[in-house]
Amino acid sequence: MATRFDPFQEMDRLLGQMFAADRASATMPMDLYRSGDHYVLHVDLPGVDPGTIDVNVEDRTLTIRAQRTSRTEQDVQWLAKERPVGTYARQLTVGRGLALDAISATYTDGVLTLSIPVAEEAKPRRIEVQHGEQTAQIGSSADTTA
C-alpha cells in the first residue's frame, strides 16, 4: 500500500501549530458586561502567578499585564509543550463617565475580575417636569417686565 506524502501539507501543519501557540500566548480572552451602576470585566489568566498581575489606568487607557513562567524541570524529555509562557498584556480604551479611581480587582481560579463603577455625573437622573400652570406664570411674569 502506497502512502502519499505532501510536503506542503506537512509544512502548513507545522507552521499552523507554531503560530497557534504564538496567538494563544498573546491573547487574554475576556467578557465585559454592565450590571447596575458598574461594569464587570472577566479576563482569563490561567496559571498566572497572582504577584505578576498589574492593572493600571493612564488617561483613558486601562492596561492589564500578567506573566506565566515556564516550568523548568531537570532531566525531563518534553513530549508536548503547548501551554504558552511569557508576558500577557492587553490595553483597553475606556470612555468617559467611569470612576477609574474606584476600580476594584480580584483574581480567583485563574480569572481576573475588574469592577469599574459608573461615575456619579454619568448616572441617569430624573428631571422634574413643571406643570402647565407653573409654566404659564413664569411666561406671564416675563411679559410684565418687558
TrEMBL record:
Pfam family, one: HSP20
Name of the protein: Heat shock protein Hsp20
Keyword terms of this UniProt record: Stress response
Family listed: Belongs to the small heat shock protein (HSP20) family.
Domain SHSP: start-end pairs: 21-132
Origin superkingdom: Bacteria
PANTHER family noted in UniProt: HEAT-SHOCK PROTEIN 20 FAMILY MEMBER
The keyword S-adenosyl-L-methionine is annotated on this UniProt entry: no
Organism: Cellulomonas fimi (strain ATCC 484 / DSM 20113 / JCM 1341 / CCUG 24087 / LMG 16345 / NBRC 15513 / NCIMB 8980 / NCTC 7547 / NRS-133)
CDD domains from the UniProt entry: ACD_sHsps-like (cd06464)
Gene3D superfamilies the record matches: 2.60.40.790
Compositional bias of kind Polar residues: 132-146
InterPro entries hit by this protein: A-crystallin/Hsp20_dom, HSP20-like_chaperone, Small_HSP
Annotated region (Disordered), positions in chain: 127-146
